[in-house]
Specification:
The chain is of the alpha/beta class and about 180 residues long. It has helices at about 35-50, 85-95, 115-130, 140-145, 165, and strands at about 10, 30-35, 55-60, 70-75, 95-110, 150-160, 170-175. Strands 3-2-1-4-5-7-6 form a seven-stranded mixed sheet.
Length: about 180
């Protein structure tokens, strides 16, 4: 995240709060969106230990109960794979960002290698059933751009020690297009 101007952060897919220790010191509040009440319960100790106040504000990234232009940054990690309508969720993220705000993302998705993509497509149906709706083959940059955002930074790689159909990662930032 860009340092110096980030005060209000919205995190899509807050999970159990693993990102809390990595927030920049400038963050004054985090609004968490997480559909799993079990994850929120597991996050209680991390939330209590956090120097940043955390407020759980919603369950669904596709419908954020937040005002327009109310966040300096949106953080989305390993969540676009499971959101039923990811473009709608990215549109909501763009809506709540201030004009100079950024979406910061880390996601897995569609691999560049044809053979790996074929395996992703073959395994995708099974993965959705056993992985809580997780899609292996979503083209993350296309989803972000289809929602009207412009990718300003993008790093890609295969994660180590994970079978390739599950391992292609996208890490980057995007701003309103």
């Amino acid at each position: 995240m860009k340092h110096g101007t980030i005060h209000e952060v919205v995190e899509i897919g807050f999970g159990t709060g693993h990102n809390l220790p990595f927030l920049p010191a400038e963050v004054t509040r985090l609004r968490a969106v997480e559909p799993s009440q079990r994850s929120i319960a597991l996050a209680r100790k991390r939330i209590a230990a956090s120097e940043v106040p955390v407020k759980v504000v919603g369950l669904d990234g596709q419908h954020l109960p937040l005002e327009n232009d109310s966040a300096d940054a949106v953080l989305c990690t390993w969540s676009l794979c499971t959101i039923p309508e990811p473009e709608a969720a990215v549109c909501e993220m763009a809506r709540v960002l201030t004009p100079d705000g950024q979406l910061h993302f880390a996601e897995h998705g569609r691999a560049p290698d044809h053979g790996v993509r074929r395996w992703q497509d073959r395994l995708n149906g099974i993965q959705q059933r056993v992985g809580g709706g997780c899609h292996l083959n979503r083209d993350i940059p296309s989803i972000i751009e289809a929602a009207g955002m412009k990718i300003t930074r993008l790093d890609t790689h295969y994660a180590k020690d994970i079978p390739k159909p599950y391992a292609f990662m996208y890490e980057g930032a995007a701003a309103a297009g």
